[in-house]
Amino acid sequence: MAERKAFLLRIDPDLYDALSRWAADDLRSLNGQIEYLLREVTVQRGRAARRGREEGGSPPKGKTR
Asked: Phi, psi (5° rounding) for residue 62?
Protein backbone atom coordinates (compact mmCIF):
# COMPACT_ATOMS: atom_id res chain seq x y z
CA MET A 1 0.00 0.00 0.00
CA ALA A 2 1.20 3.51 -0.73
CA GLU A 3 2.34 5.68 2.14
CA ARG A 4 -0.38 7.86 3.67
CA LYS A 5 -0.05 11.57 4.42
CA ALA A 6 -0.98 12.66 7.93
CA PHE A 7 -2.39 16.13 8.66
CA LEU A 8 -4.42 17.91 11.30
CA LEU A 9 -8.09 18.53 10.47
CA ARG A 10 -10.15 21.03 12.42
CA ILE A 11 -13.85 20.24 12.13
CA ASP A 12 -17.10 21.47 13.62
CA PRO A 13 -18.20 19.21 16.52
CA ASP A 14 -21.66 18.62 15.02
CA LEU A 15 -20.14 17.58 11.69
CA TYR A 16 -17.69 15.33 13.54
CA ASP A 17 -20.56 13.61 15.35
CA ALA A 18 -22.56 13.15 12.14
CA LEU A 19 -19.55 11.69 10.30
CA SER A 20 -18.76 9.40 13.24
CA ARG A 21 -22.30 7.99 13.23
CA TRP A 22 -22.20 7.57 9.44
CA ALA A 23 -18.84 5.79 9.65
CA ALA A 24 -20.22 3.41 12.28
CA ASP A 25 -23.25 2.70 10.07
CA ASP A 26 -20.92 1.88 7.15
CA LEU A 27 -18.56 -0.16 9.37
CA ARG A 28 -15.65 2.20 8.68
CA SER A 29 -13.31 4.17 10.89
CA LEU A 30 -13.93 7.91 10.94
CA ASN A 31 -10.68 8.42 9.03
CA GLY A 32 -11.72 5.80 6.46
CA GLN A 33 -15.14 7.42 6.05
CA ILE A 34 -13.67 10.88 5.48
CA GLU A 35 -11.18 9.49 2.95
CA TYR A 36 -13.96 7.54 1.20
CA LEU A 37 -16.19 10.63 0.95
CA LEU A 38 -13.35 12.85 -0.28
CA ARG A 39 -12.39 10.28 -2.92
CA GLU A 40 -16.01 9.98 -4.09
CA VAL A 41 -16.51 13.73 -4.46
CA THR A 42 -13.19 14.23 -6.27
CA VAL A 43 -14.19 11.56 -8.78
CA GLN A 44 -17.69 13.04 -9.18
CA ARG A 45 -16.23 16.50 -9.79
CA GLY A 46 -13.67 15.19 -12.29
CA ARG A 47 -10.70 16.03 -10.07
CA ALA A 48 -9.34 12.49 -9.65
CA ALA A 49 -9.59 9.10 -11.30
CA ARG A 50 -11.29 6.28 -9.42
CA ARG A 51 -8.73 3.87 -7.98
CA GLY A 52 -9.11 0.19 -8.79
CA ARG A 53 -9.93 -2.28 -6.04
CA GLU A 54 -6.58 -3.99 -6.45
CA GLU A 55 -4.91 -0.65 -5.67
CA GLY A 56 -6.79 -0.23 -2.40
CA GLY A 57 -9.78 1.72 -3.66
CA SER A 58 -13.23 1.12 -2.26
CA PRO A 59 -15.75 -0.89 -4.28
CA PRO A 60 -18.81 0.99 -5.52
CA LYS A 61 -21.49 1.49 -2.87
CA GLY A 62 -23.61 -1.63 -2.44
CA LYS A 63 -20.90 -3.91 -3.86
CA THR A 64 -18.67 -6.29 -1.96
CA ARG A 65 -15.16 -7.40 -2.75
From this structure: 90, -5
Taking the alpha carbons at both ends of the chain, their separation in whole angstroms is 17
Classify residue 35 by burial, with Cβ atoms within 10 Å: 0-12, 13-18, 19+: middle
Contacts of 28 (CB under 8 A, 6+ apart): 36
Element (H, E) at 39: helix 30-44
**What pLDDT was estimated at residue 48?**
83
Rounded to 5 degrees, what angle do the CA atoms 41, 7, 35 make?
A: 25
Task: Express each pLDDT in 19-64 by its tens digit.
Answer: 999 999 999 999 999 999 999 999 999 998 766 654 555 555 554 4
pTM, rounded to two decimals: 0.68
